[in-house]
Design goal:
Helices cover 38% and strands 19% of the residues. It has 280 residues and is α/β, with parallel strands linked by helices. The strands form 4 sheets. Strands 2-1-10-9 form a 4-stranded mixed β-sheet. A 4-stranded parallel β-sheet has the order 4-3-5-6, covered by helices on one side. A two-stranded antiparallel ribbon has the order 7-8. Helix 7 links the parallel strand 9 and strand 10. The radius of gyration is 19 Å and the shape is globular.
Length: 280
């Protein structure tokens, strides 16, 4: 599906991060190089590849590159304690871990081999940017996300491509996403709600604006991102929606900066009638 959009609109903006933009063609080429590198290192269909990155261009490149190689991604928050990282890596049997050089000291002692998408990119960029046939199948694994572990040891929940696509296709129809839309990605990729934020834009050929790390906790930063990138869709858990609404009530002029918004999606908790009335 991503390749189809690349063919239709190669020079259209695909991803925004801060003041930088990446076109569909640029993202396609970088993820193709990463996928080819991984396969050359012996990565096979349904192999689990760890990703220890904050929200960034490197993160979306890593996820697409892993999927193109037929493998499945396992997201790991760089801020996790070393013991939790070790537990996930060991349980998933991860041998390759995509990260950045800044995280290496925190990952010391892990058996998985780190591949830095900044310092090691010269090796990756030696590979072809050309597209190739996807080696997986609809039943192939797409990702494994580990639970919070609040009731014991974290458990990996595995999802297949067909399940992910089923969810994305429904959302694309239900929300009527168009190529002119821009979606905000602000949920940590270690939570399953992040999946549609990360990939829904592909189905319609729209844009993804990636919020800088930590900004998801600050309503002011969210509003600035919405205005700057003309965001048309954003997602909140209702508890954070409360914080957002409270900020708007105390800064009435800020609501004028939200004119591009068409849809706010809430999930994960109960949305109250009071919240919807307050928003309207």
């Amino acid at each position: 599906l991503f390749t189809e959009q690349v063919e239709k609109r190669p020079d259209a903006i695909a991803v925004i991060f801060g003041d930088e933009e990446m076109t569909y063609k640029e993202l396609d080429e970088r993820s193709n190089q990463l996928a080819r590198y991984l396969m050359d290192q012996g990565v096979k269909t349904e192999d689990l590849i760890g990703v220890c990155l904050e929200r960034s261009f490197e993160m979306i490149t890593a996820l697409l590159g892993i999927l193109k190689a037929g493998a499945a991604y396992v997201p790991i928050d760089p801020k996790y304690p070393q013991e939790r990282i070790s537990t996930i890596l060991k349980d998933a049997g991860i041998n390759v871990l995509l990260t950045k050089a800044v995280n290496l000291s925190h990952l010391s002692g892990q058996k998985a081999e780190p591949l830095c998408l900044d310092n090691d990119w010269d090796r990756i960029s030696a590979y072809s940017t050309e597209s190739f046939e996807y080696p997986g199948k609809p039943d192939s694994l797409a990702y494994v996300i580990y639970t919070s572990g609040s009731t014991g040891t974290p458990k990996g929940v595995a999802l297949k491509h067909k399940s992910m696509l089923n969810n994305l296709s429904w959302r694309n129809r239900e929300y009527k996403i168009e190529a002119t839309d821009t979606l905000l990605q602000k949920t940590s990729y270690t939570f399953d709600v992040s999946v549609w934020e990360l990939f829904l834009w592909i189905l319609s050929g729209s844009k993804l604006s990636i919020l800088k790390p930590e900004d998801e906790k600050d309503p002011k930063q969210i509003i600035e991102a919405i205005e700057k990138s003309t965001i048309s869709m954003v997602h909140f858990v209702p508890s954070m929606f409360d914080v957002f609404l409270d900020y708007l009530l105390n800064h009435e002029d800020e609501s004028n900066r939200l004119s591009s918004l068409k849809q706010i999606i809430t999930s994960g908790e109960s949305l109250t009638l009071a919240q919807t009335q307050l928003f309207h």
